[in-house]
């Protein structure tokens, strides 16, 4: 018998593949071969079911992270169980068929043996991975693999972040990056366009820490009471502390603005008539924008304080 071989791909992912090779003049027992093929098929089915179960649980976990329903400490342990380690990268993908994009993403990362969590949220595919150099290549191939009538798929990635407490900011960053891809599609990564100030770092985690140190109490106050004090502070500083212009932009009476600023000063412990305190608040706002904590454009560009 001349040399023969039989090959089958694993899970239709291409590589690795399983190949039976028979040496020349070897006597082949086809019943034994059929039995072996059955065992291999069963093993592959079990492996396939296990992978799909992992993907499903990972999808649920990522969905809960996006909803903010998992405490940070528990979330990090659960994510680690899926072998996704910090620094993290959060990517958002816009595709004509999100379900198909989800299947393609899971297959691509599994084939490359790169851990990833994937889910569909608000019509977008979300991906949580490590900030691995291989991820950029996978995302690029994925964007081209899910091309539709508008061209390549669109994927936006956040900056790297080291703890899941920064998940919400990373999600905003990925959306900002996604918007930059335009109709041509492809992959874009969030870039704060360099340091937002000569006096601020460019590292997202450091920027986030600066923003929260100053704005954290104000953000908590807004969440608890449904007030717009962070936005009010931002507009007031963007208008160089002009009561008239800030009140006009906020569509409120000047006395309402005065009352809000007084409350802001109480909550933050800063006096906005002081140049030092006003500058500190302004840098905190800029740090929040650069790290993705706040939207990048509140209004017209103004001279920095």
Reported for the largest beta sheet, the result is: 5 strands, mixed
- Helix-and-strand structural type: alpha+beta
Query: Order of strands in the sheet with the most strands?
Result: 4-5-3-6-7
Instruction: Provide the helix percentage.
Output: 40-55%
How is the topology of this model organized?
Elements: E1 4-9, E2 17-22, H1 30-67, H2 72-81, E3 88-94, H3 98-112, E4 116-121, E5 124-130, H4 133-145, E6 154-157, H5 167-180, E7 186-189, H6 204-225, H7 229-238, H8 243-250, H9 254-268, H10 275-291
Helix pairs in contact: 3-4, 6-10, 7-8, 7-9, 7-10, 8-9
What does this 3D model show about the protein?
The protein is an alpha+beta fold. Helices cover 53% and strands 13% of the residues. The chain contains ten helices and seven strands. The strands form two sheets. It has a five-stranded mixed sheet with strand order 4-5-3-6-7, with helices on both faces. It is elongated, with a radius of gyration of 26 Å.
Supply database-style keywords.
two-stranded antiparallel sheet; 53% helix; 305 residues; five-stranded mixed beta sheet; alpha+beta; single chain; 7 strands
What's a quick, concise take on this entry?
With 305 residues, the protein is of the alpha+beta class. It contains 10 helices and 7 strands.
């Amino acid at each position: 018998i001349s040399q023969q071989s039989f090959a089958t791909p694993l899970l239709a992912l291409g590589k690795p593949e399983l190949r039976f090779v028979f040496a020349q003049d070897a006597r082949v027992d086809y019943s034994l071969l059929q039995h072996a093929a059955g065992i291999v098929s069963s093993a592959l089915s079990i492996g396939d079911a296990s992978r799909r179960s992992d993907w499903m649980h990972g999808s649920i976990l990522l969905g809960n992270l996006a909803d903010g329903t998992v405490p940070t400490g528990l979330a990090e342990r659960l994510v680690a169980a899926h072998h996704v380690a910090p620094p993290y990268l959060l990517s958002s993908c816009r595709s004509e068929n999100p379900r198909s994009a989800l299947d393609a993403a899971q297959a691509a990362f599994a084939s490359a043996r790169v851990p990833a969590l994937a889910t569909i949220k608000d019509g977008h595919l979300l991906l949580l991975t490590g900030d691995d150099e291989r991820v950029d290549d996978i995302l690029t191939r994925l964007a081209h693999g899910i091309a539709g009538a508008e061209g390549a798929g669109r994927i936006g990635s956040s900056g790297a972040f080291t703890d899941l407490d920064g998940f919400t900011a990373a999600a905003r960053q990925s959306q900002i990056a996604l918007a930059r891809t335009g109709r041509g599609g492809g992959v874009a990564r969030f870039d704060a366009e360099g340091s937002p100030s000569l006096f601020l770092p460019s590292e997202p985690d450091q920027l986030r820490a600066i923003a929260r140190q100053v704005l954290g109490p104000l953000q908590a106050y807004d969440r608890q009471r449904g007030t717009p004090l962070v936005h009010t502070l931002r507009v007031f500083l963007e208008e160089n502390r002009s009561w008239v212009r800030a009140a006009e932009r906020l569509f409120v009476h000047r006395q309402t603005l005065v009352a809000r600023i007084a409350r802001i000063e109480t909550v933050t412990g800063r006096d906005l008539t002081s140049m030092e305190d006003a500058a500190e608040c302004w840098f905190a706002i800029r740090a929040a924008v650069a790290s993705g904590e706040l939207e990048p454009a509140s209004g017209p560009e103004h001279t920095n304080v």
